[in-house]
Automatic annotation (TrEMBL):
The lineage of its organism: Bacteria, Pseudomonadati, Pseudomonadota, Gammaproteobacteria, Vibrionales. Keywords: DNA-binding. It comes from the Bacteria. Residues 40-59 bind DNA. Residues 17-77 form the HTH tetR-type domain. It holds the Pfam family TetR_N. The keyword Transcription does not apply. InterPro entries: Homeodomain-like_sf (IPR009057), HTH-type_Tx_Regulator (IPR050624), HTH_TetR (IPR001647). Signal peptide: none annotated. This is HTH tetR-type domain-containing protein.
Length: 216
């Protein structure tokens, strides 16, 4: 069973209150630029400025820390996805992309880490962790949501919900996995301002593609 983050025990000194957050942040910074095998618990702890024993205390081991980092990075998106399952509305569908853009611009290398990890062999521990977490987070998007969106009149009738889902996910992920050289060739830069402009553009693309336009 993949290691889950342990809850912080009561009674630890106040000086340790930020240790967990520092470890998660430092691990994210390192895992997004170095291969998994090159990121040691000692390196993470050194970057975080805490004792490496804190990794064992909070997460059990490197695998547990990696899983926690992935889960907590994706948590805001998970909340919006489950809201989409509950509401299946035009606004909730749009809000998932908005949230993804706003959260990922804080960690723009994270989407690339997800893609690279999912290309690893299934036997790889990093792949297993990422797939387990990703399956949980993306489950609402599979099999249910786009069928419900068609039934509720958000997605145009006659369209394949699976292909609509793929188009939707492509609009979300592509800006972050596009090589920086492509942006440079087009005199663009992946900034929050650019993403928000792209967000509005993509909403218009969806309206002219698979979204039913809401009445004013």
């Amino acid at each position: 069973m993949i290691m889950q983050a342990e809850k912080r025990k009561a009674g630890r000194p106040n000086v340790e209150l930020n240790a967990r957050e520092k470890l998660v942040q430092s691990s994210r910074d390192l895992f997004t630029v170095l291969s998994y095998s090159k990121v040691s618990t000692r390196l993470i702890a050194k970057k975080a400025g805490v004792n490496s024993s804190m990794i064992r205390y909070y997460f059990g081991n490197k695998e547990g820390l990696f899983e926690t980092m992935v889960r907590e990075t994706l948590e805001p998106l998970r909340v919006k996805m489950y809201g989409l399952v509950e509401q299946s509305s035009h606004s909730s569908l749009v809000e998932v992309i908005r949230t993804y853009y706003k959260e990922m611009i804080k960690v723009p290398l994270f989407p690339r880490l997800m893609v690279q990890t999912m290309l690893l062999p299934p036997s790889d521990i990093q792949y297993q962790i990422m797939r387990s977490v990703f399956n949980e987070f993306s489950e609402p998007m599979r099999d249910v949501v786009f069928d419900k969106l068609i039934d509720s009149g958000v997605i145009k009738e006659g369209l394949n919900p699976v292909l609509c889902r793929l188009s939707y996910m492509s609009l979300m992920v592509f800006p972050f996995i596009t090589p920086p050289s492509i942006y440079a060739l087009n005199n663009m830069e992946l900034t929050e301002e650019f993403l928000m402009e792209l967000f509005e553009h993509n909403i218009e693309i969806m309206k002219n593609g698979f979204l039913v336009v809401e009445e004013a």
